[in-house]
């Protein structure tokens, strides 16, 4: 446990704490496959790509659960990831500060962001837990 006279601050860049080479899903994947991926790996979200590997959206646990928040039968409406994915994808650059990433997750109401380069290629993902890894401690000068 940290000294009670220490106080936290954030240090670093997104690239310092991101998960590199993340798992992705194709937009044509079944929702059943997505649920299996989420439950077997404890993911809260993943980038969605098209058949050429280009980022086209994200899908989070909240999109999966939203199926059940709708009134009426839903079975015929939602068959693939494309049917429930969030567009546009929520992204951030690798050189952004951890503080900027924290602010963006709260502004966008998400627990994860896709890290992309200037051309939009996927470099990684960053979750709120990854952002917590950027917390450092300073001693109170008083």
What does this structure look like?
The protein is of the alpha/beta class and 142 residues long. The protein has one domain: CBS-domain (Roll), CATH 3.10.580.10. It contains 6 helices and 9 strands. The strands form 3 sheets. Strands 2-8-7-6 form a 4-stranded mixed sheet. The model has no long low-confidence stretch (mean pLDDT 90).
- CATH architecture type: Roll
CATH topology grouping: CBS-domain
Number of strands: 9
**Ranges with pLDDT <50 over ≥5 residues?**
none
Distance between the termini: 20 Å
Task: Tell me the strand percentage band.
Answer: 25-35%
CATH hierarchy class name: Alpha Beta
Number of structurally distinct domains:
1
What order do the SSEs take from the amino end to the carboxyl end, as H and E? EHEEHEEHHEHEEHE
The secondary structure category is alpha/beta
Proportion of helical residues: 25-40%
Overall average residue pLDDT: 90
What's the name of the CATH homologous superfamily? CBS-domain
**Could you give the order of strands across the largest sheet?**
2-8-7-6
Given the structure, what is the number of helices?
A: 6
Q: Largest sheet at a glance? A: 4 strands, mixed
- Spatial extent as radius of gyration: 18 Å
From the spread of the alpha carbons, the general shape counts as elongated
